[in-house]
Design goal:
96 residues; mainly beta; six-stranded antiparallel beta sheet; two-stranded antiparallel ribbon; Chaperonin_GroES_sf; metal ion binding
């Protein structure tokens, strides 16, 4: 199934980093963790629609690695894969 975001929405696959304590113990995915703040852009909408009907294109593109606000994006699950859907205003930076 393909997901196509609308307006200025962005589909993000969160990047899960392996966490390790200071003493070197690796924490499993089942451990209590905070929500990720970094991910890969999977799909983008056409942009923000102005009152005159024109669209302002988004600055992020598919494949970009982005930093986003921790609790801004909404979580969605498609099949076994979890994604985040964010508005462009929730994106803080593009990592290069």
């Amino acid at each position: 199934m393909k997901i196509k975001p609308l307006s200025d929405h962005i589909l993000i696959e969160p990047m899960k980093k392996e966490e390790q304590t200071k003493s070197g113990i690796l924490l499993p995915d089942t451990a209590e963790k905070e929500r990720p703040e970094q991910g890969r852009v999977i799909a983008v909408g056409p942009g923000r629609k102005l009152r005159n009907g024109k669209f302002i294109p988004l600055e992020v593109k598919e494949g970009n690695i982005v930093l986003f606000t921790k609790y801004g994006p909404n979580e969605v699950k498609v099949g076994d894969t979890e994604y985040l859907i964010a508005r462009e205003e929730d994106i803080l930076a593009i990592l290069e």
